[in-house]
Amino acid sequence: MPKTTSWTRAALGTLLAIALLTTSGCAAAERIARDVKPGSSSSGGTSLVAPAPPTDAVSKGEASNSYGTGAPDAGPSSTLPSQDAARLMIRTGSMDLVVKSVPDAVQSVRDTTSALGGFVSDSSLNGSGDQQTAQVTLRVPSNKLDDAIPRLKSLAVEVRTVSTSSRDVTEEVTDIEASLRNLRSVEVQYTQLLGRATNVNEVLQVQQRLDQTRLQIDRTEARRKVLASQADLSTLSVSMRSVAVAGTGRLAAIEQAWTASLHTLDRLITGTIVAVVFFWWLIPLALIALWVGLRDARRHRAAKAATPPAV
Fold it and tell me: What angle do CA 69, 71, 76 make, to 5 degrees?
């Protein structure tokens, strides 16, 4: 009996401790939920999220983020561009050039890019002698792209193709900046709430939400920087080949016709091989049918030879 009583007392003590911890955790969660409730404020501090912006503000294209709220301005550095500001455009282009000397042309492209305030981000040189080709990717200021293309054209014996494209990212950048402002405001308020935490459970829960907010800030800021870099510096891809590789006039036409005929022959051979491999099961049947046909033909000739001619 004494052993049973001691076990009973230990079990009751454990259950009482669990009940106290559960009650404390629930109270902390309710306090944090009350503090972070949108549009409300606790008796000891400010709310974590500002009231949502009017519906007409959103309909007019004003910035909003995934929180669906408009946070106070975080400072001059995050001020949104006005509607009259220049639009942010990401410009890209490509060129296919025939040059006399590929190595010399690559060096000229590098010099031209440096003179325009840009840089070469990637380059490759293939082949040797008169059979060389090159691929160069360069970044130049967006306002210098229209100057870069004519300069690069002057390096070529023949300009095969030139193409450019633009993408407007003004609205995307505006939304990103609005999101950053709201996230930074939430970060400040979570930091303040962390200082008012009264127990370990509150500290852990607020710290977790603060870490998540900071992670979102880092990701959003990285996306903003990528778009800003792409808008500031245009990307131009330049393909170059020597005159010997490209060919000119009638010789080039003959070479192209010969190459096309080889490609056609290659496709025919490939198609035949594929058909033979795919329909392999028809080959035995075809051989059996041929053997039966030849046998019947021989029998028919033998029977015809054995039959005496009619008188």
Answer: 145
Share of the chain above pLDDT 70, in %: 68
User: Do 74 and 55 contact (CB within 8 A), yes or no?
Assistant: no
| Residue range 89-167+234-246 in CATH 3.30.70 | yes
Looking at residue 264, its pLDDT comes to 86
* Cα(141)–Cα(150) distance, integer angstroms: 15
Separation between Cα atoms, residue 262 and residue 281, nearest integer Å: 30
What are phi and psi for residue 228, nearest 5 degrees? -65, -40
Q: How far apart are CA 62 and CA 178, in angstroms?
A: 9
Work out the pLDDT band at 82, boundaries 50, 70, 90: very low
pLDDT in tens, 57-69: 333 333 333 333 3
CA pair distance 189, 210, nearest whole angstrom: 9
Answer whether 277's CB lies under 8 Å from 136's CB.
Answer: no
Q: Are 167 and 90 in contact (CB under 8 A)?
A: yes
Least confident of 9-18, 126-135, 248-257: 9-18
CA angle in degrees (0–180, nearest 5) for 155-237-118 = 80
CA pseudo-torsion sign 255, 257, 261, 266: positive
Q: What is the DSSP string of 77-131?
A: GGPPPPTTSPPPEEEEEEEEEEES-HHHHHHHHHHHHHHTT-EEEEEEEES-GGG
Q: Which of 158-162, 253-257, 299-303 has the highest mean pLDDT?
A: 158-162
Report field, pTM of the whole predicted structure over 0.85 = no
Domain ranges of the chain: 89-167+234-246
